[in-house]
Design brief:
By secondary structure, the chain is α/β, with parallel strands linked by helices. The protein has six helices and twelve strands. The relative contact order is 0.18.
Length: about 240
């Protein structure tokens, strides 16, 4: 797959949010960020609106529709990427959605569930075949949800994309793993990697923007990390070091 980007520069905002006491507060925070950001692309942490609230899973699933209704009305020319808990046929999925021009233009259910976090007890896994590149405005993207970052077979499925998006709730004790794997993915796939991780006390933070050359922009003190990325860097690195 070759880079076919129509837009050379993309202002990216990756979020590093603490979970508030209610779903509504989290949604209000996200909406405020969207309204005040000039970014072309905004990436939120995994389940940023509800967390893994297993005790209230039915309420979480109902909030999926509430949140999407407001976000679909709000998002026009920007791209917003987040994950939500969706109930379908009595199964619960951790679903990533990409919103653009008031539509969900891409969905992907989490395939690799994190056993240490009891995800297998509550969520149904998606399909490996659904981990696919998708294109918005001529830029090709791939998406890995948190734990999926650890699996090289999934890296292979996204080979050749311009940008890999990683919404995460990655624990503090494995902070180095998140940072090392994200950088390695950028270098290996010669693509930009954007990580958005939770800022809760037990989480790693480490939201970052990583270039195809492996250069990292990271600041654990910020709620919103913004940077303009230049898509021509993808072609430049791939021409310089040919992997095939």
């Amino acid at each position: 797959m070759s880079t076919t980007s129509l837009k050379c520069n993309l202002l990216v905002a990756t979020l590093q949010l603490k979970t508030a006491s209610t779903y509504e507060k989290n949604l209000s925070t996200l909406i405020s960020i969207v309204n005040n950001s000039r970014a072309d692309l905004i990436l939120a942490p995994e389940l940023a609106l509800t967390n893994f609230d297993y005790e209230h899973f039915e309420e979480v699933a109902i909030f999926y529709k509430v949140a999407l209704s407001q976000l679909l009305t709000l998002i026009s020319d920007k791209i917003l990427v987040l994950t939500l808990t969706k109930k379908e046929n009595n199964n619960f999925y951790n679903q990533a959605v990409v919103i653009h021009n008031h539509q969900i233009i891409y969905r992907q259910n989490k395939y690799k569930l994190f056993t240490l976090g009891d995800e297998l007890k509550y969520f149904t896994a998606g399909e490996e075949e659904s981990v696919l590149p998708f294109t918005v405005n001529g830029i090709t993207y791939g998406l890995l949800i948190c734990f999926e970052l650890r699996f090289k077979a999934l890296w292979k499925r996204l080979e050749g994309v311009d940008v890999v998006l990683i919404p995460a709730r990655w624990g503090k004790t494995r902070k180095k793993h998140l940072e090392t794997l994200s950088q390695a993915l950028a270098i290996m796939n010669q693509s930009f990697v954007i990580v958005s991780n939770s800022a809760d006390d037990d989480m790693a933070r480490s939201s970052s923007i990583i270039s195809p050359w492996g250069e990292i922009i990271l600041n654990d003190t910020l709620e919103v990390l913004e940077e303009k990325i230049h898509l021509k860097e993808v072609k430049k690195v791939r021409r310089m070091i040919r992997m095939k």
